[in-house]
Amino acid sequence: MSTEARSERASVRLSPRTVVLYAIGSVGTGGYATLPGLVLTYFLTDNLGVAALAAGLIVTLAKIWDVIIDPLIGAASDRQLARTGSRRGFMVTGALTLPLCFALTFAVPPSWGPVAGAVCVLLAFLATATAFSLFQVPYVALPAELTGSYDERTRLLGWRVVVLTAAILLFGAGGPALRNAGSDPVLGYLVMGIAAGVVIGVGMLIAARTAAPATSVPAVAASVAPASPWRDQYLSGFRALRRSQPFRALLGTFLLQALATGTMLAGAQYVATWVLRSEDAVTLVFIALVGPALIATPAWTIIARRIGKERAFAIASVLFAAAALTITAAVWAPGAWIYASVAVAGIAYAGLQSLPMAMLPDVISHDERTSGPGQAGTFTGIWTAGETVGFALGATAVSLTLAATGYVSTVAGASVQQPDAAITGIVLSFSILPAALMAASLLALRRYGLRRHDIDVAPAPGA
After folding, report:
1. Residue 217: helix, strand or coil by DSSP?
2. Which of 135, 220, 267, 440 is 20 to 30 A from 10, alpha carbon to alpha carbon?
3. How many CB atoms are closer than 10 A to CB 360?
4. Which DSSP helix (H) or strand (E) runs through 3?
């Protein structure tokens, strides 16, 4: 793409319709990221009687599958863009297939036994993960193609995170509430899976309209490199990772932060049940997290405009780590004060979601400018795989902690008493572990060198 074309893209303000349609996609991404991370491990250990270590392995295997297919989907999405001028086909396919797969994940009854139940959940969740990746990888690639403006990307991703945080509230609070609405937990999980799957699919289908037809994006389609054999396409993401230092720094930061937030997400239901002594308390945890985040997202956009995305991102990271660290005190003095710490983490979480997602299109544009034709899908395939690894290992870390501290699994309707060591492990996996991971992510962020002047292109003289 020429300097004149880049300058024209950088000067165009996105229409409200584009911003709204794109943001609605986060109803889907928020639902998929939140609900399985929140209740799937708990569904396996406390409803199907699957051992904690095996439950963590199931979630991890599904996420490993994501890591394998995401770069392939990203490269294929680039080929589709080059051929048709749109990434819409993949996004629609994912939106239409996810609802059924998601519902089947939570349709397994305890009467099938732990082994059969675990296998069925694994297969259904693998299919769900595939459908989600078909949507998510091209969805994350779109901001780099919709606008070349440093600030417009922050605006676009800021509104996306407003919807994302609302979706976290909807699914994080509403999902467990729907599950617990009746007296039969087996039916409750099934109803939850069906309802959540439909809402996720509808949100994804609406956002697919943002991927414009070929006549609307000729400059973007022309900038994509010709298709090559699939093996080269699969490896192209790793070549991009090798050549782009800003991408390595940002991805490393985001992976560690996904791991940190993944541990808190996977541990929230256990904290509600065994520390706050109420399964329903998980709803209040999510209200405490998402309420402040909804208010804080516009503030992070303003801060980023004034001091730069990377500095605002660092501030959000420090704030999240400090809030998580304070929850350690729940080992000795559990109580409702935990909600206050979670609320502070929620303020930071808004920045942790919007700012790196606004920085990724900058990285893609920088690579396009320095290394030739853009490969947005290739970058986002690796990005989504990295995010998946973080969340998967977060659930794994929680399951390992539970197994190491003697957590007792059970089936629906049965009651058990957990050892003190297991409850301590739950608290630490919700506090010290994410705080340490967030601190480590700041070391990776220090290596991110892109600034506003590296992204925005001044118009050519006489243009």
Report:
1. coil
2. 135
3. 24
4. helix 3-11
Token pair, residue 56, equals 């963590």
Q: Which residues pair with 48 in a beta bridge?
A: 411
Contact 422, 454 (CB under 8 A): no
Q: How far is CA 405 from the centre of its chain?
A: 28
Residue 411 three-state SS: strand
Instruction: Tell me the per-residue pLDDT of 41-94, one tens digit each, with 9 for 90 and over.
Output: 888 888 888 887 888 788 778 877 887 888 788 878 887 887 877 888 899 999
* Structural domain of 404: 16-214+236-447
Q: What CA–CA distance (Å, rounded) separates 113 from 120?
A: 11
Q: What is the CATH number of the domain that holds 403?
A: 1.20.1250.20
User: Rounded to an integer, what distance in angstroms lies between the CA atom of residue 451 and that of residue 387?
Assistant: 23
Contact partners, residue 342, CB within 8 Å, separation at least 6 = 285, 288, 289, 323, 327
All residues at 6 or more sequence positions from 306 whose CB lies less than 8 Å from its CB, including other chains: none
Residue 218 has a pLDDT of: 44
Contacts of 462 (CB under 8 A, 6+ apart): none
In a domain? residue 334: yes
The answer to whether 86 and 214 are in contact (CB under 8 A) is yes
Residue 38 contacts residue 175 (beta carbons within 8 Å)? yes
Residue 454 lies in a domain: no
Residue at 220 is within a domain = no
The whole-chain average pLDDT of the chain stands at 81
Q: Exposure string (b/e) for 113-127, b if CB count within 10 Å is 16 or more? A: ebeebbebbbebbbb
Scan for tokens 């909807």, then name that residue. Answer: 170
Q: Give the count of domains, the chain.
A: 1
- Cα(442)–Cα(252) distance, integer angstroms: 10
Which residue matches tokens 């480590």? 440
**Residues contacting residue 239 through CB under 8 Å, at least 6 positions apart:** none
Q: Do the domain assignments include residue 90?
A: yes
